[in-house]
Input
Amino acid sequence: MTDPTAPVAVDPGPADDTRPAASSGRGRRVLAAVIAGSLLLAGGLAIGRLTAGGAATPTTTSAEAGFARDMQTHHQQAVEMAMIIREESDDPAVLSLSYDIATSQAQQAGQMFGWLASWDLPQASPEPSMTWMTRPALDGDAHDHGADDAEHVPGEPMPGLATRDQIVELSEAEGDEADTLFLELMIAHHEGGIEMANAVLDRSTNPVVLPLARGIVFVQQGELDYMTELLERNPGDTGD
Output
């Protein structure tokens, strides 16, 4: 599982940048990405600390705490995939989308890290991942938002999470094949993220958590629809 405390590197360059041929240029780009990612994570952490005050403090096994931990891990994989495709793709639409995903989800991961710090809760969960999603909603129902209405099993992979083999495959793909695989993996990833956000909406009244969860549903549904449109276009035409 990805370490939720690890800094996330985000490429701050324009979406339509090209990869430098010289190794020195690549080194400068990597350094800039690390710095930008650290700033995004720190900014999100500061926002999380500021916004977490004023609400009842969740317990360590609460839906709010479970969501904050698990969604950090989920977001960090999205950032990882976005950074991979930015090194492999030449498609302006895919590059722009991946930049948006990397920057927004890195910031949100920092925000959720800040919540846990402000709640004086450990970043590591005392129970298997997704346990909070198996507990009843506030109205007593399960409210499973999954596409297949599958029952969640604590400790099993989170909804939409890519396998390590799929991450390796994405890293080794090139051109149109890489773009297509990225879109397919990220569509599934967004479906899982929306499911997790809806799950906490069904299980929480926390005024800090709910706005972010609603925002995740709204933004990721829009990105999901856009990625579906890109997949339906002919290879190489996604930048038109």
Observations:
- Residues 1-44 have pLDDT under 50 and may be disordered.
- The longest helix spans residues 23-52.
- The two ends are 37 Å apart (CA to CA).
- Helices lie at 23-52, 63-88, 92-118, 164-172, 175-201, 209-232.
